[in-house]
Design a protein that fits this description.
Number of strands: 9
Radius of gyration: 18 Å
Strand order of the largest sheet: 1-2-4-5-6-7-8-9
Shape: globular
């Protein structure tokens, strides 16, 4: 997206791990809550089971977000990829957020795609820890090839080799490189479509250089009102946030105010 930045364009709001302020993170409940408030996209984290199924989990282990310690004593801190499909499917990813979410499962990537297909909401899928899961990228590519039609999907990762591999397997899926800071020249070669830095490192000059290089910019994870508005003022294409309702309200108000001038 290389057009001149204008104050009328609202950045896309991306719900980080779904709307996890109101539902357990990275669950179908969080995805549904994000869709309900009108976000532009949902961000999730994808890892692999031992059987090679892409599942939606952020941490290297299942300890923080599920009841794995109760169901599998002694394995709570084992990596996600050491658990089978059946073991992951039986975990409870919701009880920690109250009785209303008891029994909420760890979803698969396929299930998230199914949940979004009829909504018009896009998916930003982060490939997590691919350096320890050599089958992950291929498994993600296969699921996207079979089940992503009808959903606008972008993949992102901190791991550039994983993005390059995904590009070889599925070149039609846009890819964004996650970075902690903003290099002086955001030039990422032909394999990248976006550069996604920490929100505090972004300036309007950087965003403009990225645009001139043919790259979009999605910042993570802007939550405070000042951080959200600062990213919008910089001209980013998207804002990944734990507070999607706040971001939508702030940005809609700003656009409405600009239109009335």
């Amino acid at each position: 997206m290389n057009e001149q930045i204008t104050t009328m364009r609202r950045p896309r709001v991306v719900a980080h791990r779904g709307a996890h302020a109101v539902a357990p993170e990275n669950t179908l409940a969080a995805v549904a809550a994000a869709v309900a408030i009108g976000v532009d996209a949902v961000e999730i984290d994808v890892q692999s089971t031992r059987d090679g199924t892409p599942v939606v989990v952020h941490d290297p282990t299942l300890a923080r977000t599920t009841d794995v310690a109760r169901r599998h004593p002694g394995r709570a801190h084992d990596p996600v990829w050491t658990f089978t499909d059946d073991e992951v499917r039986r975990l409870d990813a919701g009880s920690g957020r109250g009785a209303a979410f008891a029994g909420e499962p760890v979803p698969t990537l396929e299930q998230v795609l199914d949940a979004l297909r009829a909504t018009g909401v896009a998916l930003l899928a982060e490939i997590k820890n691919p350096e320890t899961q050599p089958r992950l990228v291929g498994a993600v590519a296969e699921v996207l090839r079979c089940f992503s039609p009808g959903v606008s999907v972008t993949a992102q990762s901190f791991h550039a080799p994983a993005l390059r591999e995904l590009g070889r397997l599925l070149p039609e899926v846009p890819r964004g490189l996650l970075v902690h800071s903003t290099p002086r020249q955001p030039r990422l070669e032909a394999w990248a479509d976006a550069v996604n830095p920490w929100h505090g490192a972004v300036t309007s000059a950087y965003v403009r250089r990225a645009q001139l290089a043919g790259l979009e910019t999605y910042v993570w994870t802007a939550n405070a009102p000042a951080a959200i508005l600062r990213a919008a003022d910089a001209g980013v294409e998207g804002i990944i946030t734990d507070r999607p309702q706040r971001a939508l309200d702030l940005l809609r108000t700003r656009v409405d105010a600009s239109a009335s001038v």
